[in-house]
Amino acid sequence: MSSTDPRAVPDKCPGALSMHQAADGSLARVRLPGGMVTPAQMLVLAGAATDLGNGSMELTSRGNVQFRAVSDGDELARRLSDAGLLPSPTHERVRNILASPLTGRVGGIADVRDSIGRLDAALCARPALAELPGRTLFALDDGRGDVLTARPDFAAAAVSPEHHLPGDPADEEAHYALVLAGRDTGVRIGEGDVVDVLLASAQAFVDLRTSEWRLSELDDGPERVLAALGSTPTDANRLEVGTSSTPPVGWLPQDDGRVALGGALALGTLDGRLAEFLAAIDRPLVLTPWRSVVVCDLDEGMADTVVRVLAPLGLIFDENSPWIDASACTGSPGCEKSNADVRADLTDAIDAGTVVRGHRQHWSGCDRRCGAPKGDVLNVIAGPTGYRVS
User: Fold this and answer.
1) 27, 43, 150, 307: CA torsion to nearest 10
2) Using an 8 Å Cβ cutoff, are 310 and 277 in contact?
3) pTM of the predicted model, to two decimals?
4) How many whole angstroms separate alpha carbon 93 and alpha carbon 17?
5) Which of 46, 157, 342, 368 is the most exposed place for a label (fewest CB within 10 A)?
6) C-alpha–C-alpha distance, residues 227 and 186, integer Å
7) Dihedral, 74, 78, 84, 86 alpha carbons, nearest 10
8) Chain-wide mean pLDDT for the chain?
9) pLDDT, tens digit, for every residue of 10-41?
10) Are strands 285-287 and 65-70 parallel, antiparallel or unpaired?
């Protein structure tokens, strides 16, 4: 790639190997496709936060985790690799895969859990897709529309029969809508084709882009990607993509009779000690795009014990907590560009009762609005002379 090619502009999106130098030290971001974490992996993450970072990890709006003030990047990479959390050094920043957190356990039209691993493995196996920008976002939606609100670049969403197209085969295979740049294209694909179609779409974007970081930034991007696929969009039976979704919080009865527990976290911060307790439960864990945690596959007795033990440690099971709808960027002193300590100010506002459940808002230290969720959200932005609402 020539030095005059716009794509030669460095991609500064942080990863586990290419860390960002923040005001409070090195920041590493670890991709967790579908937000899925085994107990053993959570224990490794907890240890890394305690031994190599500031003692906690930040959950992101893509179901990933961040470590701040990392003291030894090589040791962090070694631990992640040994835990299976770094399967491809060349692709580690592009493994951004959202998935419906409750898929296969609570509701939904289809179970997309198997597709998460297949998409991740196939993505890492294609060298050319390492050229994707670190901001690229894939998504697998099980039909409830929850992760589509993040406006993913390349997504497949399970559809009910009324959203099938005329002529679709009446077989038992799940049908999916191809969603590009957050919009239903009208193209329908079978479950067995989901991974290939999403990766072919991503490859088309790699071939078409110049300086664009997201498909939505490319002029007529979805239409040009569809043309590269040899597909024709249609307006028939298109899905309406919502602007907001509700995080799973509290007691969640699973379809198999067991229980999942959804726990929110103040400021999306998971303390290393709390992470160790989560690992000790020895059940599958899912980190959600709402910076929360779902503990899966519990019997009722164990679920009751988990609530009693983890609530005092900071996991929020109260669906009326204002923290469920509130988030913030790092702010001061962690970010040198921030105009305020937005996390402390948001905490004060919640303690004072001025932030309430049901009004989603994000507090930012500057106009970049880092970490702001997509969709219907109130942005509270700090400037040199105070806050303003956008």
Assistant:
1) -130
2) yes
3) 0.91
4) 9
5) 368
6) 13
7) 20
8) 92
9) 687 899 999 999 888 999 999 999 999 999 99
10) unpaired
